[in-house]
């Protein structure tokens, strides 16, 4: 079942100051009015839609309904990628009101496969041209952060080509039988604190010049962009549409988990070191706080979320509720010991706080009551891993992602 474009945020939610303060992580099985969910039907028909509406109202903002149709154009096909192991395509995905920017999806599919391939989909930080060594891949034309390799005057240049190969480790993923689909975050929403470019301005109502207090902000727009990539992937016969895994690092990991929570076509999600506003508790006392993230990155969440800067305990949910929206599908949180900013311990508590929903739905949840030792993967429906080192994504992380996907989705067949 497709559950994108849920009903608009429910009218009549209280002001932040009117919500009760709750010190611990709120129980996702208890409705806003205090009623405890007693059946799967009630979870699906009432509580899930309510939780989605709450997250949109108080935190991420309301996402628009999905487009009725998308249009795709395939370019620069190369059937001899990685010495003939894979085929590359660049797919422009058009949607939305006219003149809305397109998403440029880089798709690399293994050539040796038994039937359609499972796929890892995710957004990249600095452009498709950075994740492969390929002079033909189109450079993004949109705004780019200065710290991206080869970026001049906030634009991509050829100098950035191939500079982030390890981050996506695409050849390794191909060797394990999975396809990779990725696009640049700026195709959807350039990561700066105004809403003048990207797709958001194209959805303004007449006369509107910035998002309203409950309209989608950048993280929701990125997540919605992932949904558009899914719209395309499910039409591609080379891709196993039942095995779409979404991965993202840090701010883009926040987008990954939001995307999975709001779209059941996503089979598995790995928000890597996603931290505050993604996988860490908003009530957490370690690392980044709600106030801090709203101050440094005011464009990531809706204006209403700022009302919780000094009172995160009044949020009527915490991030365990977001994980619960993914249930019963598999979720893996991956972390690094030195990345305390993302609160690895707090993230483990978030998984614990979602476990009851997995069990309620009749599947396994978090098969551990304490954090695993460093380097040991908990590979159940609710998975967890912490490695030595710092905030980054690379080859070693991909080994964990792939092991987890093999375990949860089944090893891909290689012909
Ligand atoms: C900052 C921010 C985090 C974010 C990270 C990243 O550190 O505070 O919330 O996850 O950037 O995206 O790398």
TrEMBL record:
<protein>
    <recommendedName>
        <fullName>4-O-methyl-glucuronoyl methylesterase-like domain-containing protein</fullName>
    </recommendedName>
</protein>
<feature type="domain" description="4-O-methyl-glucuronoyl methylesterase-like">
    <location>
        <begin position="174"/>
        <end position="362"/>
    </location>
</feature>
<dbReference type="GO" id="GO:0052689">
    <property type="term" value="F:carboxylic ester hydrolase activity"/>
</dbReference>
<keyword id="KW-0378">Hydrolase</keyword>
<dbReference type="Pfam" id="PF22244">
    <property type="entry name" value="GCE_fung"/>
</dbReference>
<dbReference type="InterPro" id="IPR029058">
    <property type="entry name" value="AB_hydrolase_fold"/>
</dbReference>
<dbReference type="InterPro" id="IPR050261">
    <property type="entry name" value="FrsA_esterase"/>
</dbReference>
<keyword id="KW-0719">Serine esterase</keyword>
<keyword id="KW-0732">Signal</keyword>
<dbReference type="InterPro" id="IPR054579">
    <property type="entry name" value="GCE-like_dom"/>
</dbReference>
């Amino acid at each position: 079942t497709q559950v994108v474009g849920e009903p608009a945020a429910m009218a009549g939610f209280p002001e932040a100051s009117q919500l009760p303060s709750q010190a611990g992580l709120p129980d996702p099985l208890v409705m806003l009015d205090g009623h405890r969910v007693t059946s799967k039907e009630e979870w699906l028909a009432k509580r899930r839609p309510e939780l989605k509406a709450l997250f949109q109202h108080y935190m991420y903002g309301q996402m628009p309904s999905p487009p009725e149709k998308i249009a795709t154009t395939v370019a620069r096909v190369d059937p001899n990628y990685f010495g003939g192991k894979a085929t590359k395509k660049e797919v422009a995905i058009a949607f939305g009101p006219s003149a809305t920017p397109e998403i440029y999806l880089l798709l690399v599919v293994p050539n040796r496969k038994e039937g359609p391939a499972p796929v890892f989909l995710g957004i990249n930080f600095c452009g498709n041209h950075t994740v492969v060594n390929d002079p033909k891949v189109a450079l993004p034309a949109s705004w780019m952060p200065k710290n991206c390799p080869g970026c001049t005057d906030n634009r991509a240049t050829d100098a950035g080509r191939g500079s982030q190969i390890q981050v996506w480790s695409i050849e390794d993923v191909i060797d394990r039988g999975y396809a990779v689909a990725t696009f640049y975050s700026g195709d959807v929403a350039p990561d700066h604190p105004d809403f003048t470019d990207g797709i958001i301005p194209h959805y303004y109502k007449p006369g509107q010049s910035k998002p309203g207090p409950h309209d989608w902000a950048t993280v929701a727009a990125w997540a919605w962009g992932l949904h558009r990539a899914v719209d395309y992937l499910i039409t591609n016969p080379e891709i196993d549409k039942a095995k779409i895994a979404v991965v993202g690092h840090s701010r883009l990991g926040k987008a990954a988990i939001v995307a999975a929570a709001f779209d059941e076509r996503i089979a598995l999600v790995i928000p890597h070191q996603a931290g505050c506003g993604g996988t860490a508790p908003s009530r957490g006392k370690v690392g980044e706080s709600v106030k801090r993230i709203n101050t440094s990155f005011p464009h990531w969440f809706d204006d209403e979320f700022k009302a919780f800067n000094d009172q995160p305990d009044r949020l009527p949910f915490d991030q365990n509720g977001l994980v619960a929206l993914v249930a019963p599908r598999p979720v893996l949180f991956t972390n690094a010991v030195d990345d305390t900013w993302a609160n690895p311990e707090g993230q483990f508590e978030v998984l614990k706080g979602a476990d009851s929903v997995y069990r309620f739905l009749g599947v396994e949840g978090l098969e551990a009551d304490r954090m695993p030792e460093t380097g040991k993967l908990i590979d159940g429906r609710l998975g967890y891993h912490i490695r030595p080192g710092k905030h980054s994504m690379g080859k070693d992380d991909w080994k964990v992602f792939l092991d987890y996907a093999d375990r949860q989705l089944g090893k891909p067949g290689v012909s």
